Automatic annotation (TrEMBL):
Residue spans crossing the bilayer: none
GO biological process: methylation; RNA processing
Listed GO MF terms: RNA binding; RNA methyltransferase activity
Pfam families with a match to the protein in the record: SpoU_methylase, SpoU_sub_bind
InterPro entries with a match to the protein in the record: Alpha/beta_knot_MTases (IPR029028), Ribosomal_eL30-like_sf (IPR029064), rRNA_MeTrfase_TrmH (IPR004441), SpoU_MeTrfase (IPR001537), SpoU_subst-bd (IPR013123), tRNA_m1G_MTases_N (IPR029026)
GO CC terms in record: cytosol
Keywords on record: Methyltransferase, Transferase
UniProt protein name: 23S rRNA (Guanosine(2251)-2'-O)-methyltransferase RlmB
Presence of the UniProt keyword Transferase in the record: yes
Organism: Flammeovirga pacifica
Amino acid sequence: MYDNKKKHYQRSPRPKTNADDIMYGIQPIFEALEAGKQFEKLFIQRDSSNESIAEIHKMATRAGIVVSRVPQEKLQRITSKNHQGVIGFVPAINYVDPQNVIATAYEEGKVPLVLVLDRVTDVRNFGAIARTAECAGVNLIVIPKKGSAQIGSDAVRTSAGALNHIPVARVDNLTQTVIEIQEAGLQLVSCTEKGSKDVYYIDLEGPTAIIMGSEEDGINSELIQISDKLAKIPMIGKVSSLNVGVAAGVIIFEANRQRMMNA
């Protein structure tokens, strides 16, 4: 497992929400929902009887946006400005449909290279991986909606802006999406210590989706089972695991090396 072991340090204070990551007020959020704008989630004042807020709740639910009813004090902690009982958390990037991105890559004559991140929760790891992926020409990053790093302005900064350029798909059911990617003609290669072959001896030239696991417990067993190949990174030193960001860089650039050597 390529991980970043958690140490028993005192937990750091929760970072403050960046002003750029929120939208507040009844009319701005109502208009944003009507225009189809994406939201991570909405917080609505628990005891509100405002009809417009009730309509916002209905619109958000229809759009599949998570809505939480919270006390006014919680809203005030997020912003002291006139939120009118509703705050929306705006994603720092716009998410894409994975099938559309893969289809476009095929249409443009490219050999798709997709990176699937199974529950990578550390924002710095995620940002570093996105930066590596964008530099290496990865076509798409796929993450689950639940149990993944929060992609806010901190993640964008950590990625050195790469998240503004590489498509990211955030999906409800990661296993089902990975099966659909496989059906689109991509081989599934899980990077795991359970692999029987070193990554350098696995053919990565064709359309490929590379799966990387969480910092704590690696790749979900369901994804391992449906993978076409299991690749391991050989270890020589006394430390038996790599940070997931470093491991992702190793296999992504190995795929690039193979493709360039045989172009």
